[in-house]
Amino acid sequence: MLSRLRKRFTYANVAVTLALVFAMSGGAYAAGRYVITSTKQIKPSVLSALRGNAGKAGPAGARGEAGPAGAKGEAGVAGKGEKGEPGPEGKEGKPGAPGAAGETGPQGETGPQGKPGPQGPLQPGKTETGSWNFATAGAGGVFAGGISFALPLSAALSAEHVHYVKEKTTTSECPGTAEKPEALSGNLCVYETFTSGIEKVSGVASVEIFPDGSEPKELGGAPGAGPSGAFLFFVAEEQSVGWGSWAVTAPAS
Q1: What backbone torsions phi and psi does residue 50 show, to the nearest 5 degrees?
Q2: pLDDT per position in the chain (253 positions), as tens?
Q3: DSSP characters for 33-51?
Q4: Residue 201 forms beta bridges with which residues?
Q5: Residue 230 and residue 212 in contact, taking contact as beta carbons nearer than 8 Å
Q6: CB atoms < 10 A from the CB of 66, how many?
Q7: SS3 state at 111
Q8: Which of 234, 242, 238, 149 is nearest to 193 (CA)?
């Protein structure tokens, strides 16, 4: 038995036994004099040894529920950036649809009265033109068609200055046409475009021109033209019709 004890009785065993005895006796001695009520009474190095090494971190726990929303913060100061440069001009857009018609505006004030138009007489060397026509419902009798000057002449025209120009013909005093009537200075030219049912003399329509307000030759009148116009007298053989144009040019002096 002693041999077995000698085999186990080593220096390490003796050291551990002594340390245990001293620890127990010292602890008993201290317990008889001090009462430990806080970890602050223990030396940090001894406390660290008593706690031991920290173990590995355990697995993460389940995520907790979201807390309530916090109060709304105050509004921040409004930002103000620098003004940018103008961009390039865009393409012209398509025309928009027509807008609705606007309301009728109030009637404007009456404007100033215009100056009266020219009253005549027709200036020397100037020409004015117009048209003429007539039609009869029955046969036989003397009929008349009127010619009225827009601007009156300064004096009447005698018979040698008044001319009836048959369709598609001209004279030295009347170089124009029914479509473009003309008259030399101091002459009235009456152009025929068409006539039917009129008494003819030597194949020419028998038309006499008398001043306005006068009477035909049978009643003592003298051929010619008055300052404001003339009458075309003709004898109708049957239902008749006729039309044409005229031009009159005031005497040059």
Answers
A1: -65, -35
A2: 545 545 554 554 544 455 444 445 544 444 445 567 776 777 777 666 666 666 788 888 888 788 888 888 888 788 787 888 888 888 888 887 887 887 888 887 776 664 555 577 999 999 999 999 988 876 677 788 889 999 999 999 999 999 999 988 899 999 999 999 999 999 999 999 998 888 776 555 678 888 876 665 655 568 899 999 999 888 887 788 899 999 999 998 7
A3: H----SGGGS-HHHHHHHH
A4: 204
A5: yes
A6: 6
A7: coil
A8: 242
Contact (CB, 8 A) for 114 and 227: no
- The runs of H, that is alpha helices, within the chain are 2-8, 11-33, 44-51
DSSP string, 198-224: E-EETTEE-EEEEETT---GGGT---E
Q: Can you say whether the dihedral through the CA atoms of 41, 46, 52, 54 is positive or negative?
A: positive
For tokens 């709304």, what's the residue? Answer: 72
Cross-strand partners of 245: 131, 191
Cβ-contact 134, 239 below 8 angstroms? no
